[in-house]
Every structure is written in structure tokens, then in C-alpha cells.
């Protein structure tokens, strides 16, 4: 499966997927005719990375002193405005 298919299924950008691979968050992907050939398992791994990335971003918002609760609710991952 090509990177465009994985990006569409996971919701992550192609650039983010390449970054995850470069940082070692995804196992090296075999290449077929110079194109990365992703397996179905990669989608699940990318979901895990996105969830962890989102939770750490939310934790950093919570740790900001003097931040009103209402603004945190407006920026929460559930509302999709983060």
C-alpha cells in the first residue's frame, strides 16, 4: 500500500508519516520500485502515535498556569480545534 493510501486511512499527512519513520516510531518500510510499500499494520501504529501526540499536546496545555478552563475546553481534541 502506498503512502497516499496510508495517509488517507490514518488521517496523518504523508510528511508526518515520513517523519514518524525517520524518528523510528514506525519500523523501516520495504520499498518496491522505489516506493514505500506499507502494510495494513502501519495504520494502527500511526493511530497510536497520533493519540500519544495529541495527549502530550493536551497535557502541555493543562500545565500552563493561569489558563482558563473554558479555553481548554474550546481547544480540546474532542472539539477538533486543537
Entry summary:
With 82 residues, the chain is mainly alpha-helical. Helix content is 55%, strand content 5%.
- As a percent range, the share of helical residues equals 40-55%
As for the number of domains, it is: 1
CATH architecture: Orthogonal Bundle
Structural class: mainly alpha
Shape: elongated
Query: Number of DSSP strands?
Result: 2
What does the average pLDDT come to?
Answer: 77
Mind summarizing the main beta sheet? 2 strands, antiparallel
Strand content: under 5%
What would CATH call the class? Mainly Alpha
Note poorly predicted spans: 75-82
The rounded distance between the terminal residues' Cα atoms is: 30 Å
Structure description:
It contains four helices and two strands, in the order ααββαα. With 82 residues, it is mostly helical. The chain has a single domain (3-74), classed as Multidrug-efflux Transporter Regulator, Chain: A, Domain 2. It has a two-stranded antiparallel sheet with strand order 1-2. It is elongated, with a radius of gyration of 16 Å. Residues 75-82 have low confidence and may be disordered.
Task: Please describe the topology of this protein.
Blueprint: H1 3-10, H2 14-22, E1 31-32, E2 35-36, H3 41-62, H4 69-74
Helix pairs in contact: 1-3
Amino acid at each position: 500500500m502506498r503512502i497516499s493510501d496510508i495517509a488517507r486511512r490514518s488521517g496523518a499527512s504523508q510528511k508526518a508519516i515520513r517523519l514518524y519513520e525517520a524518528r523510528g516510531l514506525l519500523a523501516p518500510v520495504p520499498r518496491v520500485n522505489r516506493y514505500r510499500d506499507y502494510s495494513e499494520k502501519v495504520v494502527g501504529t500511526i493511530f497510536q502515535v497520533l493519540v500519544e501526540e495529541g495527549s502530550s499536546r493536551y497535557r502541555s496545555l493543562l500545565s500552563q498556569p493561569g489558563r482558563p478552563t473554558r479555553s481548554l475546553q474550546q481547544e480540546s481534541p474532542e472539539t477538533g480545534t486543537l
